[in-house]
Amino acid sequence: MGFMANIRRINSSEITEENVEEFIPRTSSKLKDLQYDVMEIVNEVIINGDQALIDFTEKFDHISLEKGNIMVTKEEIKEAYENIDNELLEALRFAKKNLITFHEAQVREEWFIDIIDGVKAGQVARPIDSVGLYIPGGKAIYPSTVLMAAAPAKVAGVKDITLCSPPQQNGTIALEIIVAANEFGIDKMFKIGGVQAIAAMAHGTETIPKVLKVVGPGNKWVNAAKQLLSNIIAIDNPAGPSEIMIIADKSANYEYVLIDFISQLEHDPENMAAIITDSEDLLENVEQQMDSYIQNSKRKEIIASALNNSLLIMAEDIEECVRVSNIIAPEHLEILTTNPKQILEKINNAGAIFLGSNSPVPLGDYSAGTNHILPTGGYAKTYSGLNTLDFVKLMDVLECSREGLKNLSSSAMKIAEYEKLFAHRESIQKRLEDKS
Predict the structure, then answer these.
(1) Which helix (H) or strand (E) is 336 found in, with range?
(2) How many domains does the chain have?
(3) Is 372 known to be catalytic?
(4) pTM of model > 0.85
């Protein structure tokens, strides 16, 4: 029957806010099932520190580490540079430059405004003191994720950055990850992955320092650990299997639609892709060519499995495409229509948006400067992609003159009195009575 037998085709009218999870698998509920096992690992790390990290690395990664060999050494950093492909190094440096440029544009200057006469208020931003970056490294190696996590942290001014990533069979972190991190001046890199890495950064061990916030994607175990420990550390947006949705009309090149659809399925068998269109001809072309494209893909087994999570959606018009897209709230949204900017105005929920035929998602994954650490599982309705604001605290500042004190006092004292917070009222009254 071919690969098309794995994928569902539906009409857009079938999808509503209430039933969307019947069509698009979400992983948030699955994380609850892991909590007990995750907590056992966390408790072991709290009690036994580095030894627990070594034991779990042996158990889960089948790699033997020794105490004193958890941190990447200067010699290993030097060897990584000696062995990395020079063209890849240049590509990483190009991507780093663009990421810095993009994230510098996000930085907010401190500001003050006059509220009323004698009252100035504003905000100042200060970086978080310490941050941990989690970088996956098991089934595949993603130096691009190091760039995505490190760039906004460095631009925001975070000085104390720790990185954890699973070791390879040679007993150290993948050399590409080491080099990508070192390009940002990160030298605290640890050969630890999984739940135990999150636990170590949250609580600290003899070797790995405790941090205030942990960011970065991971598998369901890593995400369960981050959520479970979010009362100890701050975390970034919830992350699960990757997603793409493509809004296309009759003007779209069906080959672009098809290859972009497939490209986001080759990461992992749990990934999701959806095409929604008002063009029957486009959808038929995609269906006719799907099997041959996947058959020629180097990762066709993964893609074929991920098709079980994916959809082809026929809509009456582009307005209906937008409605469904906003309900699904995809991680990546490509808009391949005659006028994509007009569609953009109506999009409320998406992790990142890619406009037009020359802006495929992989450009954003690597070198365009936009960030690829994005909310998945419908969390784009409430979360943003990783950015510089994730690494700072905004602090309100108030400055009142004597005139400002008088102008605010009547309202403030009345509310304090109503709430029966009499010392609050007295704090203001005392200053009004002071003649000095």
Answers:
(1) strand 332-336
(2) 3
(3) no
(4) yes
